[in-house]
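User: Structure with adenosine monophosphate, tokens only please.
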Amino acid sequence: MGYCADSPRKKMTITTFDQLGLKPELLRALADLKFTSPTPIQAQAIPPALEGRDILGSAQTGSGKTAAFGLPIISALLDRPRGTTQALILAPTRELAEQITVHLKELAKHTPIRVAAVYGGVGFGPQLTALKRGTEIIVATPGRLLDHMREGNARLNDVSILVLDEADRMLDMGFLPSVRRILGMLQRERQTLFFSATLPPAIAALVRDMLHDPVRVELAVQTAHIETLTQRLYAVPQEKKTELLLELLKDNNIYTAIAFTRTKARANRLAAALSKSGVPTELLHGDRSQAQRTRALDSLKKAKVRVLVATDIAARGIDVAELGHVINYDVPLAAEDYVHRVGRTARAQASGDAITFVAFDEEPLIHKIEYVLGRKLDREVNPLFPAIAPVAPKPRRVFSSRPRRR
Ligand code: AMP
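Assistant:
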């Protein structure tokens, strides 16, 4: 799949990184990472981005979109004077910001381009140093960046490339006013690379304000990683979900998994129950400190824990190579969250397994998800947990003090 905007590359099918016109330093980094061919989003986005075009991308995390914007940015910055911040990447969560930073550093490792992360929950000191010395690429969450801007720490006058990642998630988390405030402080002459899985009206308005004649890069929901993914549903009574999970964990093929719950309280309860049953477990949600979140992710990456129990927002952008299983302990309310959750497994070319527990009252949510995916999901029944529709509540008896008439 290739780039199809008006350009000489129009009809070319791109199958190798050499064909994308990337600099040798970047090709070396890609070889180090053992990336042999570009993912569809990379093949589509890199050529126009290298030409300086604005991009409107709808790819999901897991599609390789970090390199899709990272490679053109590093390439452009190599031709410019260094020592000032020239590229700014805004991401909704610290985890995603950290992950983007790590990946960009890998891509820039044979270049002098520096990358720094600026997000909340950790001390200002190292971030202040990075901002003051004019690190060329800053990856930031909006709130902490604004704090630095208010303090006069961040000089963003030279930012000529802006990336907005997971814009729809920024909206969900209430960051849009902060994003607009930051935009107001940047120079208008710039290249913007905008990524959002969905385009609700507020995001469409932002797109109109921010982008100039963008090249649209759209990938269907079923991206490559979704094709290598097994998706199964288990109908199970709500109160039996923990027991079913423990039963499934008897299968030793489940060595690392993320279990998603809908609320922080449910995450706490599930993590406590799993730990009590002897399953090495960590917990990741919005009330956890940065140190706890880092430890949780680290433990999962090093396979020190078997299950990471997480809520949606906290788990955005988590990238754990070889994460084999995603367990939707609760069905997410938004179909997009389902896609984001299962995108945690079967990353890039690997395969994975997504298991969703469906209580009776969650069935309508599954129908929405199946509609978005464009197909029915396979249903399984565990013999120990037969799916039983809850007995409909009996109509309440109304007691009357008056004697009944005969
Ligand atoms: P992202 O969507 O940027 O979070 O990337 C998802 C995962 O795919 C990350 O683990 C990347 O390291 C990996 N990845 C990105 N591009 C490629 C590629 N061309 N070939 C193989 N893996 C890739």
